[in-house]
């Protein structure tokens, strides 16, 4: 068995950022304007605060202006939608991100669905999902886009491969399954009601774990030579796959940290740059 390949999201994200710096500079040179990513955070969940800070830092590295909007925990769905609508109408804002998850009393999907499709750079609006699924022009859900970008960068074949996605959330499991399907993989989506999950996972050439439970996928569930994509990010930098033991069986894997996480941020930033380029009529290249 060969040493498995590390699908290094950190390194790829860094090189994508370098490319984006050039594109942002071109926007500035041609228009005198700076792309703006507005981020709304509701409440102060520590993990969300960290993610928003990381996204803001990435904006600064490529020359985008991050506009952080902090809303109190007790905000209502209507409050958040009103804020989103103001950003939809603001001609200086090119991308809108509502940090997931919002407090439980807020209807997150209603908020996502109020984001203008042209500014939905995190790819969370239901219509964005529908258009992406139908292979129409649309932004893509950021984490799934990061995963597919990483797999393609490392020339992991997708066409005709058995892909098993564990998790069906609107921001991760469902869109990554659709994107794999659009790449001609044969896709199975698993969830908490799936029967004989280890048996289903054993069929997979590509496993995408998006469960939110530390080291949930065990080494004896995975086939020799498979590709392991661990989207999970649990406290203590622990993924959803028992990578320590599963690595020996796979041909390639995403490390945690340094795999899917950096690619999520880089996809968000890339789509913000694309949104600004469209707005200003600048073609990339
Ligand atoms: P989520 O909304 O909680 O969804 C979890 C999914 O896992 C659900 O579809 C659930 O099934 C399924 N599940 C739960 N228990 C299961 C079981 N015993 N067997 C099979 N399926 C089970 O989570 P999420 O937002 O998609 O996030 C998933 C993970 O990805 C988390 O660790 C999160 O931190 C991470 N994440 C990472 C990034 C990144 O940038 N790296 C971005 C987003 C999320 P049901 O639908 O049946 O309940």
TrEMBL record:
The lineage of its organism: Bacteria, Bacillati, Bacillota, Clostridia, Eubacteriales. Residues 7-122 form the Tetrahydrofolate dehydrogenase/cyclohydrolase catalytic domain. PROSITE patterns: THF_DHG_CYH_2 (PS00767). Belongs to the tetrahydrofolate dehydrogenase/cyclohydrolase family. It comes from Thermoclostridium caenicola. This is Bifunctional protein FolD. One of its GO terms (molecular function) is methenyltetrahydrofolate cyclohydrolase activity. The gene is folD. CDD domains: NAD_bind_m-THF_DH_Cyclohyd. Keywords: Amino-acid biosynthesis, Histidine biosynthesis, Hydrolase, Methionine biosynthesis, Multifunctional enzyme, NADP, One-carbon metabolism, Oxidoreductase, Purine biosynthesis. HAMAP family: THF_DHG_CYH. NADP(+) binds at residues 167-169. The keyword Amino-acid biosynthesis applies. GO terms for cellular component: cytosol. Catalyzes the oxidation of 5,10-methylenetetrahydrofolate to 5,10-methenyltetrahydrofolate and then the hydrolysis of 5,10-methenyltetrahydrofolate to 10-formyltetrahydrofolate. It catalyses: (6R)-5,10-methylene-5,6,7,8-tetrahydrofolate + NADP(+) = (6R)-5,10-methenyltetrahydrofolate + NADPH; (6R)-5,10-methenyltetrahydrofolate + H2O = (6R)-10-formyltetrahydrofolate + H(+). Its EC number is 1.5.1.5, 3.5.4.9. GO terms for biological process: L-histidine biosynthetic process; methionine biosynthetic process; purine nucleotide biosynthetic process; tetrahydrofolate interconversion. Pathway: One-carbon metabolism; tetrahydrofolate interconversion. Residues 141-279 form the Tetrahydrofolate dehydrogenase/cyclohydrolase NAD(P)-binding domain.
């Amino acid at each position: 068995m060969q040493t498995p390949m590390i699908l290094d999201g950190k390194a790829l994200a860094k090189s994508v950022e370098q490319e984006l710096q050039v594109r942002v500079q071109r926007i500035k040179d041609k228009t005198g304007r700076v792309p703006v990513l507005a981020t709304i955070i509701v409440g102060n969940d520590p993990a969300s605060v960290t993610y928003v800070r990381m996204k803001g830092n990435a904006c600064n590295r490529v020359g985008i202006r991050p506009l952080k909007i902090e809303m109190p925990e007790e905000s209502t769905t209507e409050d958040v939608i009103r804020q989103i609508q103001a950003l939809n109408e603001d001609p200086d804002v090119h991308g809108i991100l509502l940090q997931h998850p919002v407090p439980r009393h807020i209807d997150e999907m209603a908020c996502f669905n109020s984001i203008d499709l042209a500014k939905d750079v995190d790819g969370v609006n239901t219509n964005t999902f529908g258009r992406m699924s139908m292979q129409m022009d649309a932004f893509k859900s950021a984490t799934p886009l990061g995963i597919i970008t990483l797999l393609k960068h490392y020339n992991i074949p997708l066409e005709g491969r058995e892909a098993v996605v564990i998790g069906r959330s609107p921001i991760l499991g469902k869109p990554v399954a659709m994107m794999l399907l659009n790449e001609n993989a044969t896709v199975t989506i698993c969830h908490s009601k799936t029967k004989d999950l280890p048996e289903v996972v054993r069929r997979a050439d590509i496993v995408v774990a998006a469960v939110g439970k530390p080291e949930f996928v065990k080494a004896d569930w995975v086939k020799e030579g498979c590709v392991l994509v661990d989207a999970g990010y649990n406290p203590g930098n622990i993924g959803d796959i028992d990578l320590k033991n599963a690595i020996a069986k796979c041909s390639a894997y995403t490390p945690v940290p340094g795999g899917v996480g950096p690619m999520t941020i880089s996809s968000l930033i890339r789509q913000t740059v694309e949104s600004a380029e469209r707005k200003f009529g600048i073609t990339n290249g």
